[in-house]
UniProtKB/TrEMBL annotation:
It comes from the Bacteria. It holds the Pfam family BcrAD_BadFG. Residues 8-304 form the ATPase BadF/BadG/BcrA/BcrD type domain. The lineage of its organism: Bacteria, Bacillati, Actinomycetota, Actinomycetes, Pseudonocardiales. InterPro entries: ATPase_BadF, ATPase_NBD, Euk-type_GlcNAc_Kinase. This is ATPase. It comes from Umezawaea endophytica.
């Protein structure tokens, strides 16, 4: 059997699957709905993964009775604690897609996508916020990333809810005046925030927190002080996550990559990234701040290629191939069941 790697990036908003051979050639790539076990449950997650893997195998021309790959590299949102990793690994192995399987948090895939060796720090700010770090000697540092109960602040959902909260308080007099008020009203298409809140309460409107996150950044770009305070808090949180990770692994004085990714970070240009670079330069002057330019599923595939011991040429081939494929639409597979 030709050595193949099955890579799965299971996010909150979408799931990506990539099938590559040992030379780094892309055999199939598909995308489907978000399937984080924390959001949809373990059973539903595996249903989504299985459907996407079957489609990838079909694209690659594999027989239904044939193993999809030698190794599965599954890096998933919701794999935040060892217990979750073990449960997910057992369920994935039960499907028999490959001979060996590794399950980890999707932030490790982001780190590998943004580095040549998977060494350094990665901070992701998408639906939520998380950070991992890996030292050259194999030591790791990570956070539970379970939301407020584990001390987290940030992520698109959190920032969007802040936008609504601040607009409500601006209208009813409990908060500061802010341009978020008319912007959020315009977002909902209502006459007042109170009307929008009532519609949300009765299920007649959706509090799309990720869309509201974009509203907040737009208002901050206009110079609104209240919105800028939220952006500044996010910058501080990202900086703290990276700084603590570097300290715990004794990397503050090392030349190390700090990789930033996720929809919130990549969608704000240099507003957040430049500020993080400036602040982190004080405590970690040798850190190189980078915004990842490849999706995490590529990082998952690279970790899979690392696991089966392929040559550096395979990495170069995969990176360049995916850069070419990025201009082409991925096959979206609707969830079944």
């Amino acid at each position: 059997m030709t050595d193949r790697v099955l890579a799965i990036d299971g996010g909150n908003s979408k799931t990506a699957v990539l099938l590559v051979d040992a030379d780094g050639q892309v055999l199939a790539r598909v995308r489907g709905p978000g399937a984080s076990p924390q959001n949809v449950g373990l059973r539903r997650s595996l249903e989504v993964f299985d459907g996407l893997v079957r489609e990838a195998a079909r694209q690659a021309g594999l027989s239904p009775d044939e193993r999809v790959a030698r190794h599965t590299a599954a890096y998933l949102a919701g794999a935040d604690l060892p217990r979750e990793e073990h449960e997910l690994k057992a369920e994935i192995e039960r499907h028999g897609w490959s001979g060996t399987t590794v399950v980890g948090n999707d932030t490790f895939a982001l780190l590998r996508a943004g580095t040549t060796d998977g060494i350094g720090v990665a901070v992701v700010c998408g639906a939520g916020i998380n950070c991992v770090a890996v030292a050259k000697d194999g030591r790791t540092h990570r956070f539970p990333a379970l939301g407020r109960i584990s001390g987290d602040w940030g992520g698109g959902g959190h920032i969007g809810s802040e936008a609504l909260w601040l607009a409500v308080r601006a209208e009813d007099g409990r908060g500061k005046p802010t341009a978020l008020l008319p912007a959020v009203i315009a977002h909902f298409g209502t006459a007042t925030i109170a009307e929008a809140v009532e519609r949300i309460h009765f299920g007649e409107a959706e509090a799309d927190e990720h869309a509201l996150c974009r509203v907040l950044f737009d208002v901050a770009a206009s110079g609104d002080r209240v919105a800028l305070e939220v952006v500044d808090r996010l910058v501080e949180e990202i900086t703290v996550l990276a700084d603590v990770s570097l300290r715990r692994l004794d990397l503050l004085e090392e030349r190390v990559d700090v990789v930033l990714g996720g929809g919130v970070l990549t969608g704000t240009g240099d507003v957040v990234v430049g500020a993080v670079r400036d602040r982190l330069s004080t405590s970690a002057p040798m850190a190189r701040i980078r915004v990842v330019d490849l999706p995490p599923v590529v990082g998952a595939a690279l970790l899979g290629l690392d696991a089966i011991g392929t040559s550096p040429a395979a990495e170069l081939r995969l990176r360049s191939a995916y850069a070419d494929l990025a201009a082409e639409p991925e096959l979206d597979v609707a969830a079944s069941g």
